[in-house]
Amino acid sequence: MKDSYKTNINIFNKVYDQLPAFVDVFDEETFYVFVIFFTLGTILVAFILSRFITIKAVD
């Protein structure tokens, strides 16, 4: 059990080390721009999907 746990932790650490930190990706301005576009995109996708997906009541 301990050996597989150590292996999993090592794999996790290797993957985690490859990911950039939050501050490496965003500064304050780019974070706000990302949030605005993400929110608008989410609303747009929900609106488009609402045109094609209908929920019918079960009688």
Q: How would you portray this structure in words?
A:
It is a single chain. The protein is mainly α and 59 residues long. It has one domain (1-52). Helix content is 78%, strand content 0%. The protein has 3 helices and no strands.
Q: Tags for this entry?
A:
59 residues, flat, mainly alpha
- Reading the helices and strands in chain order gives HHH
The biggest beta sheet reads:
none
% residues in beta strands: under 5%
Summed over residues and divided by their number, the pLDDT gives a mean of 91
Number of helices: 3
| Percentage of residues in helical conformation | over 70%
| Molecular shape | flat
- The end-to-end span amounts to 52 Å
Strand segment count: 0
Q: Uncertain segments of ≥5 residues (pLDDT<50)?
A: none
- What class, by secondary structure content? mainly alpha
Could you tell me the radius of gyration in angstroms?
21 Å
Q: What is the count of structural domains?
A: 1
Could you give the topology of this structure?
Elements: H1 2-18, H2 22-25, H3 28-52
How would you concisely characterize the structure shown here?
The protein has 59 residues and is mainly alpha-helical. It has helices spanning 2-18, 22-25, 28-52. This is Putative mitochondrial 50S ribosomal protein L53.
